[in-house]
Amino acid sequence: MLNLFLKKLSLRSFRNCSDSETEFNEKGNLLIGGNGQGKTNFLESIYYLSVFRSFRGMAGADLAKWGSDRFNISAFFEIGSDIERCLEVSWVKGSRKEVTLDDDRVAKMSSLIGTFPMVIMSPESLEIAQGQPRMRRRFLDLCISTVDREYLQNLIAYKRVVRQRNSLLSKMPYDNAAGSGEIEPWNDKLVQHGSFIIKRRVDAVKILSELSRKMYSRISRGDEELSVEYISKMQDAEQIEEDFTLLLEQSRKEERRRKRTLIGPHRDDLWFKLDGHDARKYGSQGQQKTILLALKAAEAHYIAELAGMQPIVLLDDLFALLDRTRIDAFLRILQEFRQFFITASSDTNHDTILKDAGFDKSDFSNFTVTGGKILKN
After folding, report:
1. What does 195-261 look like in DSSP terms, one character per residue?
2. Distance of CA 101 to the CA centre of its chain
3. Which numeric CATH code is attached to 1-117+311-377?
4. pLDDT tens digits, 221-270
5. What count of other Cβ atoms lies within 10 Å of the Cβ of residue 298?
6. What strand order describes the sheet that includes 226-231?
7. CA distances from 151 to 154, 205, 212, 304 (A)
8. Structural domain boundaries in the chain
9. Is 16 helix (H, G, I), strand (E, B) or coil?
10. Could you tell me if residue 11 is left (phi over 0), alpha (psi between -120 and 50 degrees) or otherwise beta?
11. Measured between alpha carbons, how far is 86 from 78 in angstroms, rounded to an integer?
12. Does the CA dihedral 53-54-59-62 come out positive or negative?
C-alpha cells in the first residue's frame, strides 16, 4: 500500500495565516495554540488540496486574507518512496480557480479528486451524526468519490439533471399533462445516474458499516454495537431502476405542485444504530461523538483499502471532543496511518496524552500557531 506524505506547504494570503513555507513530519504533526490563532485555518488549507473546497463551506472570497483579492496554496507531496508531486491552487477574485499539478494546468478539478486523499474531522463534522441528512449524504459522496472516479462522474451528472429537471418543474402546471414530453428525457437520465449512485452507495455502506462496527467497539471498549444503514425509497437492489421509474410516476403531481424533484438519492439518508436503536434519537452526546470517531476511522480504512493509498488524517480539536479513555483508544487506531495532523489548545496536556497512547516523541513534530504564524518548536 502506498503512503501519502505532505512534505511542504506554502501559503500566500490564506485566511489569517502569515505567508509561510512549512515542512512537516512524515508521521505526526501537532499544531498548538490558543483559540482564534489560526490552527484550524492551517488544516483547512491542507484539506483544500484534496477536494478544492473548504470543509467549513466557505467561498473563495472568505478564504482570502482580509483586504486581499486572492490566495495561493502550494504543496509538495511524496507518494510511496519514489514519487514526488507538486500541487498548486490559486484563487483571484473575479476569475476561475486555477489548479496546476507538476506545473501543468488542470482543466477539471474533479479529475484530481482521490489523487491526494484526506480525511477531516472537526467540530463541524458532528453534523454527520447529529445534523440534517444532507450532511450524511455529503460525507458518503466524498468518501466514495475519493476511491471511485465513475461514481463521481455519475454524481456530477445526476446533480446537473436535478437542476435542469427542477427548472422545468418550476414552469409546469401541476393539474394537467402539459410539458410531460419535455420532462421525460430528464426522467430517463435521473433514473440512469440515480440508480448507479444508489447501488454504489449501498455497496459502500456495507463496507463502512462493518468497519464502523469494529472501530466503535475498539473506542467504546465493547459497550454497544454500532451499525450503519442506507435509507432509500428504492430498497430492492435487484430492481432499483424499475422502482425508481414507478415512484417518479406516482409522485408526478406532487412534484409539479412543489416544483422540485422528490425522488432520488439526493433525498436518501444514513441511519446510525446502537444495539438496534436509532442513535440520533436515543444516543447521548458522548455516544454520538463516539459514532463520529468510529465513522472517521472507518472512512480512513475504507479509502486505504479501496484506493491502495493511506490518506492523510486531519483532526481539529480532537482532545476536547471526548474523555481520555476514548481519545486514547482512537489515538491507538490513528497509529495505523502514515501521516496525521492534530490541533490542540495551549493548555492541553498533549505530550502525556500521546505518550499514554503509545506514541514516541520522535513520532511527532510540534508547531506553535500564534496570530496566523506557524513556528516549529
Report:
1. HHHHHHHHHHHHHHHHHHHHHHHHHHTTSS-EEEEEE-S---GGGHHHHHHHHHHHTHHHHHHHTS-
2. 22
3. 3.40.50.300
4. 877 999 999 999 998 888 999 999 999 999 999 999 999 999 999 999 99
5. 25
6. 226-231, 269-274, 277-278
7. 5, 14, 22, 17
8. 1-117+311-377, 129-307
9. coil
10. beta
11. 9
12. negative
Cell of 190: 435521473
Residues of the chain where predicted confidence (pLDDT) is lower than 50: none
The H or E element that residue 31 is part of is strand 28-32
Residue 94: how many other CB atoms lie within 10 Å:
7
The single-letter code of the amino acid at 248 is L
Q: Tell me how far apart the alpha carbons of residues 122 and 317 are, in angstroms, rounded to a whole number.
A: 7
Question: Which amino acid does the sequence have at 146?
Answer: T
Find where cell 482532545 sits: 319
Could you tell me which CATH number the domain at 129-307 has? 1.20.1050.90
Instruction: Report the distance separating Cα 231 and Cα 100, nearest Å.
Output: 39
Grid cell listed for 18 = 502569515
The reported pTM is: 0.95
